[in-house]
Amino acid sequence: MKELWSNSIRGLEPYSPGEQQAIDRLIKLNTNENPYPPSAAVLSALRDAVNADLRLYPDPEGKALKQTIADMHGLDPANVFVGNGSDEVLAHAFFALLKHELPILFPDVSYSFYPVYCALYGIKYETVPLDDNFRVNVADYARPNGGIVLPNPNAPTGMALRPDQFRSLLERCRNSVVAVDEAYVDFGADSLVPLVKEFPNLLVVQTLSKSRSLAGLRVGFAIGDANLIAALDLVKGCFNSYPLDRLALAGAVAALRDREYFETTRAQVVESREWLAKELSMLGFQVLPSSANFIFARHPLHDALEVQQQLREKKILVRHFTQQRIAGFLRISVGTDEECRRLVEAMRGILRDSGSRP
Ligand SMILES: *Cc1c(COP(=O)(O)O)cnc(C)c1O
After folding, report:
1. 114 with 214, same domain?
2. Residues 33 and 136 in one domain
3. Chain centroid to CA 110
4. Where are the beta strands (DSSP E) in the chain?
5. Are residues 32 and 160 in the same domain?
6. Is the CB of 85 under 6 A from ligand 1?
7. Any atom of ligand 1 within 6 Å of the Cβ of 186
8. In what residue span(s) does the Aminotransferase class I/classII large domain sit (predicted)?
9. What is the CATH number of the domain that holds 225?
10. Is the CB of 207 inside a 6 Å radius of any atom of ligand 1?
11. pLDDT average, residue stretch 39-49
12. What's residue 356's pLDDT?
């Protein structure tokens, strides 16, 4: 039947997201969603937006949302692009800014969507190995390239770089776009948004899915020089005039305005992360230092895939990646205190029952 398919899609492999199960009382620590609900102001804005205006198309430019984001950073709306989740924003960035003669660069251990976009758009890429401690070494990226994509904090390691480390990279790579995926930045890293005015080649991508508890609403955005934003707007205008619907626009503005709720919930997630990291270390896990809302850890004596499956039997989902370099690790999203406590309890039981194996 594939004769009916376009040639260009025949070899494509889609990104595989963590499973979304509707099992009762499941503890879901596999897709880095926020364990806390969206702010009450968001829910109320959404309810208000459920009205007869839904017969009308939404604002194609999302002006109110762009303005809200620009105001937060003392920038102009022309420095802001908004899209249907940061995955869509990233997809447009790959096509609009990262397809050149030279290959683009990203880490060997990173967000597994990047190679998927490259395959979709026919973009050449090279991966740059993390060092033995799973750190990004920015000096490794200072070579001829068609662009650079770096998540900060990196996924799935959770480890972050400091802005001064990026500064040297941005200075050395002025002729290519450096796209920094800040999906998890609010949980403990410093954003590069303040560097946007200084570096016309820097694109910062953020999302409301994680730190704003809105994975279900699908809102992401990019901040950068107006020239980069114009390229994204052009591609978006050739693809979908209305990527953000009326509800998404209303909810996103309300979420960004509720600073207090944001600060409270992110502090809570950070506190739970530290507790979880400490408990897992005491169970013998090697825990990478996380600046995100998840923990990346391996146990020297236990098979990660087996532990994942045993947790699953106890109705706790965590994520395991088959990529060889990280196959010994589990990525565990930070849940509520109660969820973290139950995860640790379950883990203790599993490690005890299965005994230590080399
Ligand atoms: C979650 C995530 C995204 C995508 O988030 P959206 O829900 O599409 O906004 C992008 N990059 C990384 C590294 C992520 O973990």
Report:
1. yes
2. no
3. 10
4. 27-29, 80-83, 104-107, 125-128, 148-151, 178-181, 202-207, 220-224, 286-287, 294-298, 316-318, 329-333
5. no
6. yes
7. no
8. 26-346
9. 3.40.640.10
10. yes
11. 98
12. 52
The pLDDT assigned to 17 comes to: 82
Of 67, 114, 48, the residue nearest 86 (C-alpha): 114
Query: Ligand 1 pocket, 209 CB below 6 A?
Result: yes
Give Cα separations from 344 to 67, 276, 293 (angstroms): 43, 8, 16
The pLDDT score that the predictor gives to residue 358 is 43
31 and 53 housed in the same domain: no
126 Cα to the center of ligand 1, angstroms: 21
pLDDT for 81 beyond 90: yes
Instruction: Count structural domains, the chain.
Output: 2
How many angstroms does the Cα of residue 225 sit away from the middle of ligand 1?
22
Of 210, 241, 258, which residue is a domain's last?
A: 258
Q: Closest residue (by CA) to atom 5 of ligand 1?
A: 86
In this structure, the answer to whether residues 117 and 183 fall within a common structural domain is: yes
Give me the domain span that covers residue 168.
40-258
CA of 115 to the centre of ligand 1 (A): 14
Whole-number Å distance, alpha carbon 206 to ligand 1 midpoint, is 8
Pocket test for ligand 1, best of 31, 65, 86 (most atoms within 8 A of CB): 86
* Bridge partners of residue 319, in order along the sequence: 331
Confidence at residue 143, expressed as pLDDT on a 0 to 100 scale: 92
Alpha carbons 122 and 115: distance in angstroms, whole number: 10
Give the residue, out of 65, 205, 206, 210, with the most ligand 1 atoms within 8 A of its beta carbon, to mutate for a pocket test: 210
